[in-house]
Amino acid sequence: MLTERQQFILEEFLQIPDKALSVGDLLPLFDVGRTSLFRDLSAMVEAGLLLPDAPTRARTYRLNPNSTAYLRWDLSRPPQQRPDVRYNPRLLTDYRPNHSFLLTSNQRTRLRQAGNIAGAEQLEPGKNYTRLIATLLIDLAHASSNLENVPISWLDTKTLIEFGERPDGLDETQLRIVLNHKAAINHLTTHAGEMNLCRRDLFDLHALIAEGLIAETTAIGTLRSRVVRFSDSRYLPPDNPHLLKEAFDEFCDKASVITDPYEQAFFTMTFVPYLQPFQDGNKRTSRLGMNIPLLKHHLAPFSFSDLRKRDYMFGLLAFYERGQHTFLAEAFVAAYEKTAPRYAALLDYIQQGGMLGTLT
Predict the structure, then answer these.
(1) Does the keyword Nucleotide-binding belong to this entry (predicted)?
(2) Where is the binding site, in residues?
(3) pTM for the complete prediction?
(4) pLDDT class for 122, splitting at 50, 70, 90?
């Protein structure tokens, strides 16, 4: 935890993040002596925020490029101000299922506490079960569509999905994105018990999510053959079809044997967008695919409804360009802890004999 003065020092470094500053440079800005400033800077070095250039009292300091403060500054800049970053195969090859983890032990415990819905496996298909699944469908379709810049409200999503009533202000592409979510989530909730994070099931999800949105129909539900580039990131995904196939197969092999469903879900959330296996719709496919292990284990689904778009995009960007998964992990856990209790409360209400109604 930084002191107030150390926070001011950090803000001074962030003014020109690649510039080195000495104690002498900072002295005119604070009403304290050289020794006090030196102690502050030493504490910030110890905290990993700053890097010293020499072991002397005349040393200068720079922001640590691996620190959170520097990363947030660097990745918030226009992408043209950063260098290209190629796909790093070691991020996937070095991952050992059930031995190395993207989520910390504490995060996995918090997720289990939030999402463990007692009695979910005993809930038989019927009117109440259908309403519970419909709630998931609407929440996930709404949140995922919003993440694709589709300006649709939750209520408009509900009326479109349940009654086919087209909301004002959506063009044909935006309408198709929402309706494709409906088809894909219906497939997911119906077949989750038999689905796995494998080539066939991910291809099926992609085919549903991309229907009518990719001009080349041969690119739907299959690995891409074209090079993919981003307008908002300098990350360069795999561009060799043979290497892409090998990487995707390795992803499926590892994802399918992860025993912790939350680690499985987060592994999918990070690596499907990182590989960019499809010509388009990669993030949408990952958002649905990560729910396979959650639904399969009768856990609360992740609807993305409480995940801030900026946190989601920054987390992906940090993984794309720096191989840092911690930002996305923190955003995932915090959002899940907000959304999961809602499904638990609805299920508990059903188990107490309550009926889930609708406005109509």
Answers:
(1) yes
(2) 280-287
(3) 0.86
(4) low
Select from 335, 303, 330 the least CA-distant residue to 318: 330
pLDDT of residue 14: 85
- Specify whether 146 is located in the same domain as 281: yes
Round to whole Å and give the CA distance between 289 and 208. Answer: 12
91 and 57 in a common domain? no
pLDDT band of residue 359 (cuts 50, 70, 90) is very low
57: pLDDT confidence band, cut at 50, 70 and 90?
Answer: low
On whether both 71 and 180 belong to a single domain, the answer is no
Per the domain annotation, does 135 fall within a domain?
yes
Domain boundary, last residue among 46, 76, 106: 76
∠ CA 95-307-261 to the nearest 5 degrees? 40
**43 and 90 assigned to the same domain:** no
Q: Are residues 175 and 61 in the same domain?
A: no
pLDDT at 59: 86
- DSSP letter for each residue of 217-239: GGGTTS---S----SS--EE---
Residue 293: give its domain's CATH number.
1.10.3290.10
Domain limits at 32?
4-76
Residue-wise pLDDT for 20-38, tens only, equals: 999 989 999 998 998 999 9
Burial of 312 per CB tally in 10 Å (0-12, 13-18, 19+): buried
Give the residue from 257, 210, 265 showing the smallest Cα distance to 97.
Answer: 257
User: Where is the domain boundary, 27, 48, 76?
Assistant: 76
pLDDT bracket for residue 360 (50, 70, 90): very low
Q: Which residues are annotated as a binding site for ATP?
A: 280-287
Run of H or E residues at 22: strand 21-22
Beta bridge partners of 60: 22
d(CA 62, CA 46): 13
**Domain holding 27: CATH number?**
1.10.10.10
Residue 215: DSSP 8-state:
S
Q: Would the CA dihedral through 14, 15, 18, 24 be positive or negative?
A: negative
